[in-house]
Design brief:
alpha+beta; Actin, Chain A, domain 4; five-stranded mixed β-sheet
């Protein structure tokens, strides 16, 4: 009764606690928040100065006494205290700063994290004010969010390319039959672009610039019409600001290595998939989710490499958080012994 009374007044939340961004789903309201996973703190006092979009704008531009950090690396907590403050901030923001309310929270976590890392995520949310914390593996959440019929006795493959990790899973009868996680995703692609500029043009660029290049002209498969953009950075030789023009072919070359690693882990998962489920994938194909799946030509390249149909989920960026939201909606049904759709 106490929990029921509490649930009437608290907005239960589903959180996609990503390396690049945090998305929050509120029960009955849908997705209410989408902000970068960046926190700006004072170097000496460790005071938090900004969180989310405001902090991301500070990346690479802060004075010596301020540092902009990403508290999550490769999908797991790298800085416990900063992560806790970030989650607390988002809870208060969603609840309009009403500190009395303690929501139930469902958090998407990478399938490959350790028990210690799971405990760190759970404790961060509890310290930030959660009443109850449930963890759901990201491939499963992404599959639920992509409306894949996971309860059917047939194989479904989900590939979730996020900021810090790429999650691959074959799902049947509501469980993951084969799953793999690799620390190569959007951030690694950005870093590959940074290194390409440094190696070929002696030009230093920041994370935000690299991400901008990837979004604007990035591709992994030949485009019908190749494009180019101008990029500004600092010349390593002269130390002066410099502008160069870079083509989409060059960016494709820069992205070749991380792309190859992602394709490889997908192939490895397919090799370990039981024969009966492999047969299902011939018809059902592969579903892509996550921001990295939006990279131009990725679906075409993956289809060419695996000889399977490849489909992009509807709104791939929000699949995981929508999956946590659906799981959240089902918690009451599970408690009352009702049949769950999940």
């Amino acid at each position: 009764m106490f929990n029921y009374f509490f649930s009437l007044f608290s907005n239960d939340m589903g959180i996609d606690l990503g390396t690049a961004s945090v998305l929050v789903y509120v029960k009955g309201q849908g997705i209410v928040l989408r902000e970068p996973s960046v926190v700006a703190i004072e170097r000496d006092t460790k005071n938090v100065l900004a969180i989310g979009a405001e902090a991301k704008r500070m990346l690479g531009k802060t004075p010596a006494n301020i540092i902009a950090v990403r508290p999550l690396r490769n999908g797991v907590i790298a800085d416990f205290e900063v992560t806790e403050q970030m989650i607390r901030y988002f809870i208060k923001k969603v609840h309009n700063r009403r500190s009395l309310l303690h929501p139930r929270i469902v958090i998407g976590v990478p399938s490959g994290i350790t028990e210690v890392e799971r405990r760190a995520v759970r404790e961060s949310a509890e310290q930030a004010g959660a009443r109850e914390v449930y963890l759901i593996e990201e491939p499963m959440a992404a599959a639920i969010g992509a409306n894949i019929p996971i309860q059917e006795p047939e194989g479904n493959m989900i590939v979730d390319i996020g900021g810090g990790t790429t999650e691959v899973a074959v799902i049947s009868l509501g469980g993951m039959v084969v799953s793999k996680s690799i620390d190569v995703a959007g951030d690694e692609m950005d870093e590959a672009i940074v290194q390409y500029f440094r190696r070929k043009y002696n030009l230093l660029i920041g994370e935000n610039t690299a991400e901008d290049v990837k979004i604007k002209i990035g591709s992994v498969f030949p485009l019908p019409e190749e494009t180019s953009i101008e990029v500004k950075g600092r010349d390593q030789v002269t130390g002066l600001p410099k502008t160069i023009s870079i083509t989409s072919e060059e960016v494709r070359s820069a992205l070749a290595e991380p792309t190859k690693a992602i394709i490889e882990v997908i192939k490895n998962t397919l090799e370990e998939t039981p024969a009966e489920l492999s047969a299902d994938l011939v018809d059902r194909g592969i579903v892509l989710a996550g921001g990295g799946s939006l990279l131009r030509g990725f679906a075409e390249l993956l289809s060419q490499e695996t000889e399977l149909p490849v489909n992009l989920a509807e709104d791939p960026l929000t699949c995981v958080v929508r999956g946590t939201g659906k799981y959240l909606e089902e918690l009451d049904n599970l408690r009352h012994g009702k049949k769950s759709i999940i």
